[in-house]
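Example S7 (structure tokens).
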């Protein structure tokens, strides 16, 4: 039922898709990931579940960042849809993720698009941030950031930009330490870098 409603909300095909009414050229959601994210967003909005869906997608992102095995399951074409479906369903059940997001993941797996799930999650976040008038910051760190660290980072970025900031995190184990932050289309400026350096020092002291 949910799969049918997703398809009805935004037909998933190779043809050019229509944009969600909330999305402008500032936050394009193109390609496969954009079509799925738009359909999920519209359905979540209709159900009044935008925040709940975002929270569940955030859990999935965190699990992907923390588990090489899960990342391999998502990205590898060697797993069949049945294998991915069983394994991913077990992961979601363990994380307490059900309802719309679980059914969405099932549809993604059935259509053999699980490899694009991380991009779908990012696209959903971009649509949601745009609806709320938020700025999205792309944050790359050497390790997974804790909830307290993410909140501290939001505060620092809001103080520097004067706007609410949505954090889109990514882990790059190749970094020697610290953070790489991109706000909108630009890298952080010197004033923001000073605030972030203070935050990084606090992060080191807390670790």
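Recovered sequence:
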């Amino acid at each position: 039922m949910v799969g049918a409603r997703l398809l009805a909300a935004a037909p998933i095909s190779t043809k050019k898709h229509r944009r969600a009414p909330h999305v402008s050229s500032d936050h394009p959601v193109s390609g496969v990931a954009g079509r799925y994210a738009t359909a999920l967003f519209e359905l979540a909005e209709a159900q009044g579940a935008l925040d709940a869906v975002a929270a569940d997608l955030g859990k999935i992102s965190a699990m992907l960042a923390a588990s090489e095995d899960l990342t391999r399951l998502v990205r590898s074409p060697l797993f069949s849809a049945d294998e991915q479906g069983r394994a991913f369903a077990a992961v979601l059940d363990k994380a307490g993720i059900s309802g719309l997001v679980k059914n969405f993941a099932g549809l993604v797996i059935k259509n053999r698009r699980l490899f694009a799930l991380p991009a779908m999650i990012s696209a959903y976040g971009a649509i949601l941030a745009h609806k709320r008038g938020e700025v999205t910051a792309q944050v790359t760190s050497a390790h997974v950031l804790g909830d307290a660290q993410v909140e501290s980072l939001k505060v620092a970025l809001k103080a520097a930009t004067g706007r609410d900031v949505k954090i889109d995190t990514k882990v790059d184990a190749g970094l020697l330490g610290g953070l790489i932050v991109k706000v909108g289309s630009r890298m952080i400026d010197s004033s923001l870098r000073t605030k972030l350096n203070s935050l990084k020092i606090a992060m080191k002291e807390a670790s």
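Notes on this example. The CA atoms of residues 17 and 31 lie 8 Å apart.
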